[in-house]
Amino acid sequence: MRLDSATGTVVQRIPQDDQIESIDVDPISGDLCVGLLYGGFRRYSATGVLRTDIQTGDNIYVVGADPTTSDCWVGGGGGLVRLAPDGVEVAEAMEAREPHFDIAVDPRDGSVWALDLPNRTNRDPARVLHVDAEGITLGSFSFQPDPPASFGIAVSIDPRNGTAWTNDLFRNWIFKLDPVTHLPLLSFPISRPGAVAVDPADGSLWTSWRFSDSGGLDKYDEDGTLLFSIADYLNVGSRGIAIDPDDSSVWVLDDQRGGPGARIDHLDASGNLLLSVPASAISPWESRFIRVGPAPALPPLEAAGPLFYDLIDALGLPGALANALLGHVDGAVRQAERGNPAGAAGALGSLILQLEAQSGKKIASGDADELISIARAYIDGM
CATH number for the domain including 7? Predict the structure, then answer.
């Protein structure tokens, strides 16, 4: 679901037929990357059009959009791979075991930090694995192997210098890791840590915690000094905090362990509540992940031309009709160039109506997803 950041209302829903394990938004294109538990990876355009649908055969637990390339890293039972927007594998982290819980891509160089499960065969402990954009291992930080074996459940990168913040769930600890040595630059205790999220503006850290039947949020500066605490959140999961890079505001998803108080809150950088949306107003199902991404941009009208011919073929209409109706596409482009979006929307709307009249059927989204989305985006944007 996509929420309007000003009102919290749902503006887009994309149904899935499998359990969602992870989502991320490409900050370049606005595409949505979705990892599904039973081996599915899907990528949708900013307007909700399905671009990539892959069945890997292995459980997928984490996805992370690469802000340097628009590729998406996918991790799970099959290891850790980087997929291009068309779904083609372009890199693999050969030393990854089974990335779980969370992943973060460094916007400076495309390197990846992934929380890797322990190797039960030779008793290697869980770790934070750091690989470069081609999947070559740069280093790692291992958690304590002694019973109870510990592991991290969240990781976030400071884009100013590449340091990585992570946590240790069972040993109740937070670490800030050096991107070169992979050793802690600082660490401090915290009760039952959950999410970690770094503000790219100043390197401050938001994290969630839980103690018995209570919980909350803490904000620390980049040196680990506690700035303030908000004790009003019961269960914010490992991917339940997202920071808006435009204004340093924070979105928090508290599932309240399935209780009636589940909600999504929008806070400013000082922790003041801007907006609160009951989870029940969004979905009857439990929500676990939240990410911030750009609003869908109107797609370039030039893309409508070749897509239009594909649609003509799909509908079985004669090529002569395509030439006759192509004027609607050209007209839409000209109107857009003249700064008249209403005229562009009208031309595309007329095109859709003409195609439906000539084919004798309603054009379903599956017949011309991209063309229909372009037309609707311009019409809805009026």
Answer: 2.120.10.30
How far apart CA 349 and CA 154 sit, in angstroms, is 46
Query: Considering the domain boundaries, does residue 293 fall inside one?
Result: no
pLDDT, residue 110, reads 95
Do 103 and 218 fall within a single domain? yes
- What's this model's pTM, rounded to 2 decimal places? 0.78
* Run of H or E including 315: helix 304-315
Q: Judging by beta carbons within 10 Å of its beta carbon (0-12, 13-18, 19+), is residue 140 exposed, middle or buried? A: middle
In the chain, what are the helix, strand and coil shares in percent, each to the nearest 5?
20, 35, 45
Q: Identify the domain boundary among 252, 281, 310.
A: 281
Residue 251 lies in a domain: yes
Residue 73 near residue 64 (C-beta atoms within 8 A): yes
Q: CA 258, CA 262: separation in Å to the nearest integer?
A: 7
Residue 183 domain-assigned? yes
Supply the pLDDT for residue 176: 98
Question: How far is CA 314 from each of CA 53, 262, 356, rounded to the nearest angstrom?
Answer: 20, 45, 13
Q: Is residue 290 part of a domain?
A: no
CB atoms within 10 A of CB 248: 17
Residue 296: CB atoms within 10 Å:
20
Residue 186: CB partners within 8 Å, gap ≥ 6?
175, 176, 223, 224
AA identity, residue 289: F
Q: What are phi and psi of 343, to 5 degrees?
A: -65, -40
> Does residue 156 sit in the same domain as residue 51?
yes
Same domain for 371 and 261, yes or no, is no
Between CA 188 and CA 175 the distance in angstroms is 7
Q: Is 305 helix (H, G, I), strand (E, B) or coil?
A: helix
Q: How many structural domains are present in the chain? A: 2
Helices and strands (DSSP H and E) totals, the chain: 4, 26
Do 231 and 85 share a structural domain? yes
The percentage of the chain sitting over the pLDDT mark of 90, rounded to a whole number, equals 45
State which residues form the domain around 213.
Answer: 2-281
- Which one, of 301, 248, 291, lies nearest residue 32 by Cα? 291
**312-367 pLDDT per residue, tens:** 666 676 666 666 666 666 666 666 666 666 676 677 677 777 777 777 766 554 44
DSSP assignment of 138-195 equals EEEEEPP-SSSP-----EEE-TTT--EEEEETTTTEEEEE-TTT-SEEEEEE-SS---
